[in-house]
Amino acid sequence: MRRLPGLIVPLLTVPLLALAGCGGGGQARTAPTSASPSPLSPSPDPAPSPSPSPSSTRNRLCVPTTDMTTAERLAYLKDLSDSAHGASPAFFMTDSGVYLLAKETQRPCEAVRFQLSWFRVEMTRAGSGSSARYSFTYAPIESTTLSAGPRDGRVVGSVPPPPKGCSGTLSVVYVGEEITEDDLPDGLNMPGGTLDWSLVTLDADRALSAVFKPPAGASSC
Length: 221
Description:
By secondary structure, the chain is of the alpha+beta class. It contains 3 helices and 8 strands; from the N terminus they run αααββββββββ.
């Protein structure tokens, strides 16, 4: 029993020698060496932000109106100022229709909706000369929804029907509920000076502008 430790060494060396001699050609296989780590490459610089295109630059100068509520559209159109005359309204009406002349920074990005109603104004004169007075009776002609912008100019479809006989025309631009005869004033001012039409003020807050054009022969009605 004391000789067993001396037999262990030869038995263990046999497998090691066999492994070293296999593989053909008598060459020993060696474990592949691990590749040396490559140096860390510097992080790439962040890509520069693309320069804004002309169209996106323009869009930052206009006012988005698509998602505006009725109250917001009304306030927006009321607050527009004229590009040429500063404090003058940029959304206005004359006897030839509705116009938009907005500053570049206030211009709508897209066409903005509004309403337009026309009324026939029957005129009856009492008295003569400078003391003549007129009474007015309204009758609706038509109401429509139109859009102004984003370019300046007269709104297509906004030209009012002409007066006829002893009947004038009242045009009202508004946003919101339809303007009715109850919203119209009891009296109207006749044009003065060189104009053959006059501006009209309505008590209704939703009214933006109103124009009255009497018939050419009103003095004989």
